[in-house]
Amino acid sequence: MSASPGQPEPADAPSPRTVLVSGASRGIGRAIAERLLAEGHRVSAGVRDPAGLQAETGAAALCRQAPDRLLIHPYEASAGDAAPRGPRAWVEATAERWGGIDALVHCAGVFSRVGLQYADGEEEEIGRVLDVNLMGPWRLSRAAWPLLAASGDGRVLTLVSMSGKRVKGRLAAYGASKFALLALCQTMRNEGWDNGIRVTAICPSWVNTAMAAAVTAIPRQAMTQPQDLAASVSHLLALPAAAVPFEFSVNCQLEA
Ligand SMILES: NC(=O)c1ccc[n+]([C@@H]2O[C@H](COP(=O)([O-])OP(=O)(O)OC[C@H]3O[C@@H](n4cnc5c(N)ncnc54)[C@H](OP(=O)(O)O)[C@@H]3O)[C@@H](O)[C@H]2O)c1
Asked: Is residue 7 part of a domain?
């Protein structure tokens, strides 16, 4: 199919990338992994339960469609650098399969309603939220950094949140983890710039996944859909280094 007279020819399909996607079992990460696979990228999916994902009908179909472009590897975001389910093992297995890594999409994350006046015993949850939402992406980025730098055109896309830019209500633990994650993104942008690594902090408000299941303030169909974010990620990955936005904010409600 060619463009109509007077219209620009569509751009060539972008080169396939080798992309690590954390939290690829469901929600936003799953939608991103499926979209990138369908577009011809090589996807290394980090999940807590690889056998469970492989047993799912939809995932099994994906594995059959693209067995040479999909790796499903165990990944626990709170695991230490060198733990069997930690970031190093996942990064090494991916590099062994495809010879390198040129993009990282951080989607693994947890929500928490723990507030400033946390109840006795809730301090542990604050630590867990910070560990998964902040230290998880930190450890994984650190493990993948030399390979991202070696690619010369690496990308890091991180599911931060609007909660990394403003705090609604009393979500102290979640908001603190996401503000800190945005700071980490800024540092990664600074450190990676000279090696061609470009970083984008994706900041949606409500997205229609299990994480937003308890939200009643807005109908689910009025929320941002995970497939729409996947389309945005696909576009962001295709942009040249000089055109990559650092921040990508997505509102499903006016916040003026
Ligand atoms: N949904 C929203 O409204 C919204 C808005 C803004 C930002 N975000 C952010 O977007 C990201 C994805 O959220 P989502 O809406 O897709 O949530 P979701 O549907 O609840 O999925 C969360 C994903 O994170 C994984 N995960 C959780 N804890 C993990 C751990 N300790 N180690 C490894 N993986 C872990 C889950 O794996 P399992 O299947 O193993 O549990 C799942 O794949 C999160 O960082 C979230 O904060 C979400």
From this structure: no
94, with CB counted inside 10 A (0-12, 13-18, 19+), is: buried
Q: Rounded CA gap, 179 and 174, in Å? A: 9
CB 156 within 8 A of CB 111: no
Q: What's the predicted TM-score (pTM) here?
A: 0.95
- Using CB distances shorter than 6 Å, the residues near ligand 1 are 23, 25-29, 48-49, 75-78, 107-110, 132, 159, 161, 204, 206-207, 209-212
**Nearest-atom index, ligand 1, CA of 30:** 43
| Residue 24 Cα: closest atom of ligand 1 | 43
Burial of residue 118 (CB within 10 Å: 0-12, 13-18, 19+) is middle
Overall domain count for the chain:
1
β-sheet with 155-159: strand ranges across: 70-74, 42-47, 18-22, 103-106, 155-159, 198-204, 247-250
Whichever domain contains 80, its CATH number is 3.40.50.720
Say how far apart CA 189 and CA 155 lie, in whole Å: 10
The residue assigned the tokens 């999916």 is 45
pLDDT tens figures, 72-129: 999 999 999 999 999 999 999 999 999 999 999 999 999 999 999 999 999 999 999 9
The answer to whether position 6 is within a domain reads: no
- Has residue 157 been placed in a domain? yes
Which structural domain range is residue 26 located in? 18-250
Q: Helix H segments across the chain?
A: 27-38, 50-55, 57-65, 87-98, 123-130, 136-151, 172-192, 226-238
Has residue 243 been placed in a domain? yes
